[in-house]
Amino acid sequence: MMKNTRSGSYAQPQEKTVKLSTVLSALVILLVYAAVFVAEQTLPSTSILFTVLKKGATYALVAVSMNLLNGFTGLFSLGQAGFMLIGAYAYGILTIPVEQRMNVYQYYDGGIVQFALPVVPALIIAGLCAAAFAFLIGLPVLRLKSDYLAIATLGFAEIVRTIFQWDKLGFLTNGSNLLREYPTFNDFNIKGADGEVTLYLSTLVPFIIAGVCIALIVLLLRSSYGRAFMAIRDDEIAAEAMGINLAKHKQIAFCVSSFFAGIGGAMLAMYQNTVQAKAFTSAMTYEILLIVVIGGIGSVTGSCISSFLFVACSEWWLRFLDQKQMIGNFEVPLLRNGFRLVVFSIIIMIVVLFFRQGIMGTKELPDLFKPRRGGKKPKRSVKEKAEQAKENAKEALQAEEQITLTAAEAAETGAAVAAEAAGEEAASLKDKAEEAKEALKEALAQEAAAAAEAETVEGGEA
Amino acid sequence: MREIVMQMDNVTMQFGGVVAVDSLSLDIYKDEIVALIGPNGAGKTTAFNVATGVYAPTNGRVLLRGKIIAQGHPTGKMKHMYAGTHIGEYNKLISHTPDKICQMGMARTFQNIRLFKNMTVLENVLVARHMRLNAGFFQSALNLNLHEERRLRRECSDLLDMLGLSDLMYENAASLPYGKQRYLEIARALATDPRILLLDEPAAGMNPQETDELSDFIRKIKEDFNLTVFLIEHHMNLVMDISDRIYVLDFGKLIAEGTPEEIQKNPAVIAAYLGVEEE
Ligand SMILES: Nc1ncnc2c1ncn2[C@@H]1O[C@H](COP(=O)(O)OP(=O)(O)O)[C@@H](O)[C@H]1O
Ligand SMILES: [Mg+2]
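# adenosine-5'-diphosphate complex -> structure
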């Protein structure tokens, strides 16, 4: 789909810069975690910020898992909500405490499962269940042309949603009733003897779960298998001619992606406190797809950043659009229930139409700390240089567009998180734009030189 | 008898009503450089595609180092449409996917360059080593095969060094000048450890000087990598210069076969090809 001309940090980095940029990235991530921890201990636990952070972390994992498939392997799947549903239900079913089962499964005699697993094994099983379904779908579908995958996964998600509400399976799924009473994010808070919370961990824990899972995905992408996935994305025919078994590798990518979507689903269940199959609609998949597109198809960092921005917009910053506002006696027009979604859709359309690269393109966090390459480039002919410079100029224009976008975003929201992210983003982009502008000047000069050279050559020949 | 590396027996490839390759038989012996020439649309690329498993032959078979890698006869609708010969000789259907054939030792380049555009030069070559990975999926996915990764990177960067691409190692493949992209495609094919290398118009778009360099280069890699080379090419200087033998294809049919001297003198070839197009 949308591809950048420069590859992200999956490229073998150049020797010296690798350390600094990696260390700085690690530092940034550490700071984020520290900030989350501190915020959680100091701010009131009812703050909307924590809602955004918890849901954002959950969506970040699901978005990265979708990006693994759509952005890095080039397979277009629309089954994310279905796999999340399976993960959410597997987690809920396996962890509801035995003494609560009678209460939860009140119409089904307490259900069939009469044990409860600890959180971590339940999460892993949730992922495995989703992966198992993916494997079965993948067997027939991944051998067909890739368009079929989107249709098959979309259909699968709808079917799963219906089956899980089916009363004949109620002994397992509780039919169309809620699953509840399983361990949620709030249960990670540590309470003292008096029942008062002594240490808040309900936001840090989802960050840790999502962080570990995303780290595993990043490791996979950096491995030989990751390279094989990207080769398939770039050119399936060439990849196959170079010995990569397409069916096997697509199957692996699909199962791994679904595994993490399943864990993401379990996290969503933990976030929501209750879970119901009805809620896992295809609209959820589209939300996640949008996060991936806005973040940058082929950028893990982009998916993470845009998850938080997206959740913050939908849960927090744009909420006011849904409420009637009075200025004196004057009722502000348009502001009423549902208007938020309209504005939201417009923003998304603008992003998709005009900022195809998304926030990050295919860049990753460490790329932002790398000095621009240059100087070491091999000598090239004047013409090639001119052409390269022209391309840089094009990039400059794109970069400028992005600056305005991020700046506007920051200004509009005025929120700390966005401002920080946008600031960083803008700084790096500004550098790029400036460099590219210089390149443009050079390009013009070089073109002139090339033209002059060509003339002299032709003149000589004549 | 010298060992036959690749052999095509009466291969016919028919697309709908178009017979792109018509009952083509040829043998490529070990350590040879063999050229396949013919006017545009003669069916040369299609022959390569059949040999490498991209298309299953409509009829006939292909052998790689004595093993049948593809064999077929017309089935379904093609039974009635089939316009070729040698019907009924290849009853057993055998087909391997291109990746399997590559693993068995046949690598190729493409007429229209097909690099992994969003990956670096080094990564392009590393991809070709993936099928020879020792580590299992989990070991590799968790980056636990550090030694192997390091070894792979070293091998691939040495290979790029040999081919004069080492200073472009971290460049994006798509940003390379055209000529270098062709060399990178060859590097990538070499990284698969082939016994036989199929080159589809490697000199396309090159000027005479670059073409000369390419001739030397092909000879050099043939020696260094102990290869057998089968190539499609339009630059007659290159073909006559490096080929041990030449096959000439016209409208899918083999019209001549022989040494460069024989081919240059062959009246059928001159009529069909040399006389019309070149020189
Ligand atoms: N996949 C295909 N479907 C239909 N026709 C094809 C296909 N591939 C090749 N052909 C036809 O086969 C003939 C030979 O093409 P090709 O092998 O590319 O020629 P060459 O490489 O010798 O220039 C052409 O007429 C072409 O249109
Ligand atoms: Mg061709």
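# post-check
The CA atoms of residues 382 and 453 of chain A lie 9 Å apart.
Chain A has two domains: 16-369, 376-461.
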